[in-house]
Structures are given as C-alpha cells and as structure tokens.
Design a protein that fits this description.
By secondary structure, the protein is of the alpha/beta class. It is built from seven helices and seven strands, in the order βαβαβαβαβαβααβ. Bound molecules: NADPH dihydro-nicotinamide-adenine-dinucleotide phosphate.
C-alpha cells in the first residue's frame, strides 16, 4: 500500500463520529488533516490533540462560500489538497405524512449540496496538480429505501449517483470512492425528532459498530497505489441485513 505521508486531506464533519475517527486514522497513517464542521470548539480540541499536522476551519457545508473558504484555508496552510472526504451528514428520519419539510430541506442542503460544494471546491486544485482523491460517504440507505427514510435515502442515493458522475468525467485524474456504512455508533440518530421513528430504530442502533471500522476503510482506499481504485465499499454490522 502507498504511504499517506505528506498527503493533505480535508475531512468534513470531523467534529464527531465517523469524521472524527477518520481524521485520527488518516493522521496516524501519516496524512496532514484539515478538520471542518460547524462546532469549532470540538475541531480545535481535536486539532490540538493531533498536533502539527492538523488544522481546523469552521465550515457549514451547506454554504457554498464557506466551503470555498475551506479549500482556500487548506491551500494557505498546507499548500495543496490531495484528498477530500465529504462526510458531513444529517439524518432526521421521519414519515412523509409528518410533513417535516424544514428537515427535508436541510437534508438536501447538507447531504447533497454539501457534497457538491465540496467537489466544486476540491476539483480545481486536484486537476491543477493532476491527481486527487474524493471520498463520498453515502450509506446502506443509498442502496435501499425504508419507511421514514424517503428523503434521507434520496440524498444518499444522490451521493452515489454524483460519485459515479464524478468518476466518469475525471477517470485517470481523480479517484472517487463511495463508502456506504450500515449502523455506526455516532451522534447521527440524535437528529431524529420523530419519537415513533426513533423507537422503531432502536433495535438497529443496538447493533451499531465502532466508527473506526469506517475510518480504517477510508485509510485503506486512500492508501492504494495510484493505478488502483476502490470504487465502493459497504461496511455494516455483521448482524444487520442490508
Ligand atoms: P455524526 O452526527 O456523529 O456526525 C455528523 C457530522 O456532520 C458532525 O461532525 C457534524 O458537525 C457534521 N455536520 C452536520 N451538518 C453540518 C453542516 N451543515 N456543515 C458542516 N458539518 C456538518 O454522524 P456520523 O458520524 O454517523 O455521520 C457521518 C456521515 O456518515 C454522514 O454523512 C452520515 O449520513 C453517514 N452515515 C452514518 C451512519 C451511521 O449509522 N452513523 C450510517 C450510514 C451513513 P457539526 O454539527 O459540528 O457541524
């Protein structure tokens, strides 16, 4: 496997869960990491823990200018962008009948537009240097649809479609990996405001695996030699049906 030493990697949603674990794992593998999310106190704490090869930039991924600023801040600090992990996400599951349209809007803004803004900010820098890695976090919810997941699943199907499009258009120049986790023990379910949906989800949450399983898969994908591409990975609790 190739070394991640001297690689500069941006991770969105690095303030908790999968993003935080990924930042730690990439840093341990030798990469310099730029941590992004809205909760700056958490980012500062993690960047301080990781030390010299880590920095943070408070970013709302649903704000196009802030994502552009994140790319600029990364280049100003580290000189390049070698990898960009579009991980930030929001999952307020609910039944369509409940009409939680504001939550639908926000899911589209964070889970789809946030990924697009990340791609738009990273790709020019990657094309300039002739290579780059984009990792997009979809979900098993990007492979199947379940009651209460119509909108969330829609956003995660979109992430897989966008990843395919990116791969088609930049073959040979930008490597694109889509990661689809099953249940992972993070703060994600805290966003659910529908009591019944949360109750129904509990048995699945009990199966949730450690976020390090996803972080390790991202390190594996990014550590491949340049002529080897990991297109997609589904990583789920052994006991979880897809
Ligand atoms: P967490 O809730 O623990 O982490 C979500 C992260 O996204 C946080 O760091 C949060 O930071 C960030 N975030 C949310 N909204 C924004 C925003 N507008 N701008 C910037 N950052 C934002 O959940 P996970 O770690 O589980 O989620 C990571 C990804 O994994 C998501 O895309 C999720 O859909 C996906 N996933 C998770 C699964 C699971 O079971 N946990 C299963 C399948 C996929 P902050 O609030 O500080 O901005």
């Amino acid at each position: 496997m190739a070394s991640l030493e001297n690689k500069i990697i941006v991770i969105t949603g690095a303030s908790s869960g999968i993003g935080q674990a990924t930042a730690r794992a990439l840093h341990t593998a030798g990469a310099s990491v730029m941590l992004a999310a809205r909760r700056g106190d958490r980012l500062t704490e993690l960047a301080t823990e990781l030390g010299e090869k880590a920095a943070s930039h408070v970013t709302d991924v649903s704000n196009r200018q802030q994502v552009q600023d994140l790319a600029q801040a990364t280049i100003a600090k580290f000189g390049r962008i070698d990898g960009w992990v579009n991980n930030a996400g929001y999952m307020p599951l609910s039944m369509i009948e409940e009409g939680k349209v504001d939550e639908w809007d926000k899911m589209v803004d964070v889970n789809i537009k946030g990924v697009l803004y990340g791609i738009n900010a990273a790709v020019p820098a990657m094309l300039k240097q002739g290579f780059g890695d984009v990792v997009n976090i979809s979900s098993v919810a990007g492979h199947l649809v379940f009651p209460s997941g119509a909108v969330y699943c829609g956003t995660k199907f979109a992430v897989r479609a966008i990843s395919e499009g990116l791969r088609n258009e930049f073959a040979g120049r930008i490597r694109v990996t889509t990661i689809s986790p099953g249940a992972v023990a993070t703060e994600l379910a805290n966003h659910i405001t529908s009591d019944q949906v949360l109750e129904n989800l509990k048995p699945l949450l009990d199966l949730a695996i450690n976020p390090n399983a996803i972080a390790d898969a991202i390190v594996y994908a990014l550590s491949q030699p340049r002529d080897v591409s990991i297109n997609e990975m589904i990583i789920r609790p052994t006991a979880q049906e897809l």
